[in-house]
Design a protein that fits this description.
mainly alpha, 2% strand
Length: 244
Amino acid sequence: MRWIENAVFGALQRAKRFVVENLAALTGVDLTAVIKRLDDVLASFTTHAVEQNATDRDTKGESAKLQQLSVQLSTDVMQPIAEIARRNLRTTPEFKALQMPKRRLGGPAFVASARGMAEAAAIHKDTLIERGLPTDFLEKFQTGVSQLETAVSNRDSSRTQRMGATKGLTFQQQEGRSVLKVLDALVRRALRGNEALLATWAGARAIHRRPGGGNASTPPSTSPTTSNTTATTVSGTTPPTAAA
């Protein structure tokens, strides 16, 4: 989660705890609906944060796997084919397809190039075997390309899910601010004249700024650090330091 999302999540947690601990003093207002909404937002925050973290790990894992498979396929199969083609198949129509792809190619572009080389190699299978490649080189080539395609698909799927979780966190951060504003109005009404509890409530519902700016990715189960921070109240007029 970004620091602002974590800060709002922490404020929601503290607000819920304050209400639970001081329920006897919160008379004259009906908090049922707003507390339910608060609980829903907290649950959604946690779900999206867990999904974001998991899919981020999956994306990194699939990217590393894709890199490993690409290097392995290039070294074990594609480079020998390109070398033989350079020396023996220059005049064939498929010569260009039998050359190594440009180094900057990656992901789907590299897979497409490898698939094209495999198809061209099939046409000249006998020549390539005569020049030293194993008799099963084409089968290994096709298997390697299929593994690359699977890795690309899995990585892209994880990226898509992570984007969804990230957008979900952004939405819940905005929802959380709205819940805090509604709850703030009700709690202030219930505690009118009780300055001690109102001060405690102000600290509980505060969304803390992160010194120095930047991003943070604290898990949702960890409340944001409150020391050395400047708090802004939800219902106040001072805007947060970062866009919601």
